[in-house]
Amino acid sequence: MSYFRENIEKTEDYVPGFQPEGADVVKLNTNENPYPASPKVLEAIKNVSAERLRRYPEPLGNEFRRAAGEMLGLSPDNIICTNGGDELLTMCFRAFCDESRPVAYPVPTYSLYPVLAGLQNCQRVEVGFGAQFGLPDGLVNTYAALTIVCNPNAPSATFIQPEELFALAKKLKGKSILLIDEAYVDFSEANCAGLAKDFDNVIILRSMSKGYSLAGLRFGYGIACEELIAGLMKVKDSYNADATSVAAATAAIKDQDYFKENIEKVKTERRRLAQTLGELGFTVPASKANFILAQCNDCDASQIYEKLAQRNIYVRYFNLPNLADKLRITVGTKEQNDKLISALEEIIQR
Amino acid sequence: MSYFRENIEKTEDYVPGFQPEGADVVKLNTNENPYPASPKVLEAIKNVSAERLRRYPEPLGNEFRRAAGEMLGLSPDNIICTNGGDELLTMCFRAFCDESRPVAYPVPTYSLYPVLAGLQNCQRVEVGFGAQFGLPDGLVNTYAALTIVCNPNAPSATFIQPEELFALAKKLKGKSILLIDEAYVDFSEANCAGLAKDFDNVIILRSMSKGYSLAGLRFGYGIACEELIAGLMKVKDSYNADATSVAAATAAIKDQDYFKENIEKVKTERRRLAQTLGELGFTVPASKANFILAQCNDCDASQIYEKLAQRNIYVRYFNLPNLADKLRITVGTKEQNDKLISALEEIIQR
């Protein structure tokens, strides 16, 4: 016999991206920011005292909520701190979904969504993106309690304009929560934070992992109307964000100058990488994230993946419908991208 | 209309203990360790590099699992890292409980259990402790999928011997998981870690908050057979423990000399405080935790609570059956305990 619930037994483990170690490795497979976090973050961490560690943290992470609210022009009451963006996803599944309350989302997208649906034992309504990764019309009529749109989408790096999501939120009002997963939005020109004020059914997910170079810190946050934030607070662990992470994330979000400079560096390399991949014969849709989904036209994506790995260069390959002819490549530093490009030139010429 | 599930709407927020601020405050209300963490913890935190923060953490916290396994004489595969002990509780509710799979536990106990049952929408079977807080016979026949025993129990500070929990685990085998919440066990003379090897249905919860003075860090862990750990891994967030916390918790658990010295200091003060409270007319059962549940005999517990608070001394008062005539007092430093004792002498003489 198993002690576990049947749906837990049936749920396949989420497989985190491979984390190769070594100084020689060019790691472009898990969408980390190639540049380090603001020096003010390390300073904030070094200043955490034994006394602050000894005591329970302030349970809501108000220090961060104030800083994020200020940056966004919103009240701290519109913000919830989470242990990584992933915890906000978990909280939304627990708050809105169950056996009679499905989740809906376009596919292909972030592979954690179906895992969380399995753990919560709720039905999944997966609506296929078209070839251009536009917003599928079918999302309006799913009867889902929770509708998720990852924007920019992973792994396509494509972006749906806020106006379109505004229209979707309006159609879903009174029927479904619209969760817009903006984990990668720091690399886009627009975002949907404004919708959180206008709608009682919109939640925006943000992450400090990518734009702020803090994947190791596990810090994310949600943006929504006060009523939704208050409800989500019930579902979170009492002290979900630790004292060190709150101090570090607050320092990071306050240093907007450093942040913007960092983002520009990534965007500059993104342009260059996209152009070069185009010249090498890949089809590269406009990326609004810190990665590129490059489609192989006269080549075999899985073979290129293997040959890159043999050279200690790691990108991501998904053997899935609509993705098996593509490689997802994180935008690295200039040096890393140069190594990737040289290797690709070599591989493709053979 | 509400977008939330009905059970979420109905669940009352968990109320964390009051966190008064100020240098004058004597804070004996939330069971923090009065002494700071090992200096090696602060050193480990200061040594966390920007590179480690930039990258995703190793997802299982293997560095800590190895150190904890070594300390316990168990394999790392018997350990799971969690974002505070509370996250392990949440994971167990999600893994084992649902509408047709109840949870059972003796009461009064940790007030988070009913909140988590509400969030998971599972039935609660609450079996009353007797006046002596011994293991209730009724726990064997509850048909629960998850049975929780907090040991030492909060807020009674009483301890059930491992032999009795061994017998309970045996009776529950094939029927229920037995989760032994050992958040306070570092202050006891015995513990149940050994049961995790002998039983396929026992999970031990540990916390770094109390014994290791790291409540601000949010780090706990579970101990169980490999099969249960593997199942629980599915339920955890992919990267639930951040890089800084793993480094800090590992440094803490490796410094057993510091830890043991710290525990002895708390125990010495616990003895003195218990004796003095007895002399002041309170009934004080033997405490195996870092707090004392003191029963007022000729006095009014809620009034004493108020009068202490007026003097900036905070203890915990629960207006609940079996607790309304008692105060839960965290064992503080010698200086803090002296202040409490002086204040109590003053209050009681009036």
Please give the domain count of chain A.
2
CATH topology of the largest domain in chain A: Aspartate Aminotransferase, domain 2
CATH superfamily (homologous) name of the largest domain in chain A: Type I PLP-dependent aspartate aminotransferase-like (Major domain)
User: Structural class, judged by helices and strands of chain A?
Assistant: alpha/beta
How would you briefly describe this protein structure?
The structure is a homodimer of 350-residue chains. The first copy, chain A, has 350 residues and is an alpha/beta fold.
Write a structural description.
Two copies of one chain form a homodimer. Chain A is of the alpha/beta class and 350 residues long. The first copy, chain A, has helices at residues 6-10, 39-46, 50-54, 62-72, 85-96, 112-120, 162-172, 195-198, 226-235, 243-254, 256-279, 301-310, 334-349, and strands at residues 26-27, 79-82, 103-107, 124-128, 146-150, 177-181, 202-207, 220-223, 291-295, 313-314, 326-330. In chain A, α7 (162-172) links the parallel β5 and β6. The longest helix of chain A has 24 residues, at 256-279.
Topology:
The structure is a homodimer of 350-residue chains.
Chain A: H1 6-10, E1 26-27, H2 39-46, H3 50-54, H4 62-72, E2 79-82, H5 85-96, E3 103-107, H6 112-120, E4 124-128, E5 146-150, H7 162-172, E6 177-181, H8 195-198, E7 202-207, E8 220-223, H9 226-235, H10 243-254, H11 256-279, E9 291-295, H12 301-310, E10 313-314, E11 326-330, H13 334-349
Helix pairs in contact in A: 2-10, 4-10, 5-6
List the main descriptive attributes of the protein structure presented here.
homodimer; 350 residues; alpha/beta; Aspartate Aminotransferase, domain 1; Aspartate Aminotransferase, domain 2; 39% helix; 14% strand; globular
